[in-house]
Amino acid sequence: MTPTLVRQHLPHAGPAPRVDLCARARDWSEIQERMLVPLYEAVYERLEVGPGTRLLGLGCGSGLALLMAASRGAEITGVECHSPERLALARDRLLPEAPEAPAGVEARLVEDCPENVTDTRTAPYTLVTAFEPIGCLAGDSEGLAELLAGAVPLAEHGAAVVLAGWGPPERCTTSSVLRVAARLADPLRFTGGWRPTHRDDLEEVAQRAGLKPDGSGRVACPFGYTGPRSAVRGLLSTGLFDAAIAATDQAQVEKELTEALHPHRRPDGTVWMPNVFRYLIARVP
């Protein structure tokens, strides 16, 4: 998501932001990606991911969720359509020839659309994940639906497809910070609101993809940082502030973001923002 959160799979409207995409991808990998680990763990535990699981990760980013699945014994494939910089970091983590790759992990990583991961040697996938939470950018659900359209035919009958979204704003402390992005990106239309995932957004995406909902859950995913500087770098790495940077400049966004983080600083200087994310499990008919 350009690097994106959370998307990774979500296109941005407007001019391309003036950012260092390689540095942004490193910040995602080193700071922000771990914030969704409780979500990955909850889903993998509920679906009993392990040996025999053939997982296709959409918007795999720098590969942390894939690595966690592989550590459980799953066979993993990752697709990253919008951030070659993040995918390069995933290769360092997961491909056998990479110096940072752990022993015993084998992965297929594709810098393209899901349709191009077909391989006659590979059995259909038993699990498809789209962990990038929708609900912050206009059109993000449409982007997710497009990804699913290419991925669902690769999965076997009854395979689980997992979608994720932000929880209600009253349970997402980060929503107050994300309002900075909305206000700076489009000040004339800004009304003070932040549009989190609506209650049925994930179900609607699943329905458009021809999937049958089969359960859901909520997971606490607090965003914790060593300090404001780390928080700013992590949040900018999501791509959710790119439109604001394009409309103003990075220095202005960083200044206002730092101010918005002030209420969330703890006495020891760290930044702590509790959030809740929702996931939906749907099945391939």
From TrEMBL:
Query: One biological process GO term for this chain?
Result: methylation
Task: For this UniProt record, give its keywords in alphabetical order, as a comma-separated list.
Answer: Methyltransferase, Transferase
UniProt cross-references to InterPro entries, sorted A to Z: SAM-dependent_MTases_sf
Please, which domain of life does this record's source organism belong to?
A: Bacteria
Gene Ontology MF term list: methyltransferase activity
Q: What's the protein here called? A: Class I SAM-dependent methyltransferase
Native source organism of the sequence = Streptomyces actuosus
